[in-house]
Amino acid sequence: MLKPTQCVHIGAVHDTVTHGANSPIFTSTATGYLDGGGIVYPRYFNTPNQRAVVEKMAALEHGEDGVIFGSGMAAISTTLFALLKSGDHAVFQSDLYGGTFRLVHTDLERFGIDFTLVDGTIAGDIERAVKPNTRMIYIETPSNPLLRIVDIREVAALARSKGILTVIDNTFASPINQNPIDLGIDIVIHSGTKYLGGHSDLCCGTLVSSKELTARVRASATHFGGTLDPHTCYLLERSLKTLALRVSKQNENAMEVARYLAGHPTVKAVYYPGLENDPGHAVARRQMSGFGGMVAFEIRGDRAASERFQRGLSLIKPAVSLGGVESMICSPARTSHSRLSERDRASIGIRDELLRLSVGIEAPQDLMADMEQAFGSV
Ligand code: PLP
């Protein structure tokens, strides 16, 4: 079955009352136990609405099983603390979502887990960081916010040769554009708040992996408790039905917008793996079937100029978060990466004038017209 069909059909719970098109919502947190079949309970991650989403995600990500969480950070933190212990070492890509970067710096250290941050785009960088006690390599590609591309197959092969687990945050690509398990990655995580939800109105996270690794993470997850309620599961299931459709339009729009920005005199730099001259283009072509809806760029000018540009927009919304049907823009230095020190931001390459654009499903001509008039205010 191809992805657009999987998006619509896989995992649906049959409605035995009306035989309707949609999965019923099962609200009970108290469920019968006398007739066998195990205990069904939201924090055990096994309710029908949770399973419906997990089955769809596992099919889309080519994994065996999965877990649905209350947020992307619940998925990430649970995975790290389920699979790492005091005395272990992990390698992380340095250009990471700001929340993950902070989690690594504050909480891993507190629990005695050693780590090294590397620029995963440089060949051999990750390998040099590996120590005898390295238990995990964690990557995010395309990365937030600079859209850097890491060679997934290379990282997975290195890790397998040394018996190290691999985890990827696949949020920016979505399962429509990239399937890391096919390239040898063990665990795929998404902030479902972004493309999976797709309408900027729900918060969740997902993990997809083998049966064995999923069971290990789920065992800790039942203690950590970052579960998701049936109503949000239902909304997510509904959103996923249009994921392939939305993402393919976002791929097209982002390509057009990136080309427009690359040719604009007020723009100093554009970061988009779909552009032929992007440093990640060749690897992205090999491992992605579409280049995604995220574009980052720097305008000629300072932080104030970038703020004037955002205030000058009338259609594209200056807002935090991404992946929705509506186009949104933000300054990572003031939002997703604001809690990093200036020095940490500089070391990753996040400048004050950097803007991160999440391209929606609108007509691209309208988006470009909106930016053109806002460039006038810079
Ligand atoms: N991963 C990436 C790439 C993100 O952009 C985000 C949030 O912006 C997260 C993880 C965290 O997800 P959540 O906000 O759903 O906890």
Set out the fold topology.
Elements: H1 3-9, H2 48-60, E1 65-69, H3 72-83, E2 89-93, H4 98-110, E3 114-118, H5 125-129, E4 134-140, H6 152-162, E5 165-169, H7 174-177, E6 187-191, E7 205-209, H8 211-224, H9 230-240, H10 243-262, E8 267-271, H11 281-287, E9 294-299, H12 303-312, E10 317-318, E11 328-330, H13 342-348, E12 354-358, H14 364-375
Parallel strand pairs: 2-3, 2-4, 4-5, 5-6, 10-11
Antiparallel strand pairs: 1-7, 6-7, 8-9, 9-12, 11-12
Helix pairs in contact: 2-9, 3-4, 3-8, 12-14
Bound molecules: pyridoxal-5'-phosphate.
The site of pyridoxal-5'-phosphate (PLP) has 15 residues, from helix 3.
Describe this structure in words.
The structure is a single chain. Helix 3 (72-83) packs parallel to helix 4. The protein is an alpha/beta fold and 378 residues long. The protein is built from 14 helices and 12 strands. The protein has a 7-stranded mixed β-sheet with strand order 1-7-6-5-4-2-3, with helices on both faces. Strands 8-9-12-11-10 form a 5-stranded mixed β-sheet. It starts with a helix and ends with a helix. It has helices at 3-9, 48-60, 72-83, 98-110, 125-129, 152-162, 174-177, 211-224, 230-240, 243-262, 281-287, 303-312, 342-348, 364-375, and strands at residues 65-69, 89-93, 114-118, 134-140, 165-169, 187-191, 205-209, 267-271, 294-299, 317-318, 328-330, 354-358. The model has no long low-confidence stretch (mean pLDDT 96). The protein is globular and about 70 Å long. The site of pyridoxal-5'-phosphate has 15 residues, from helix 3.
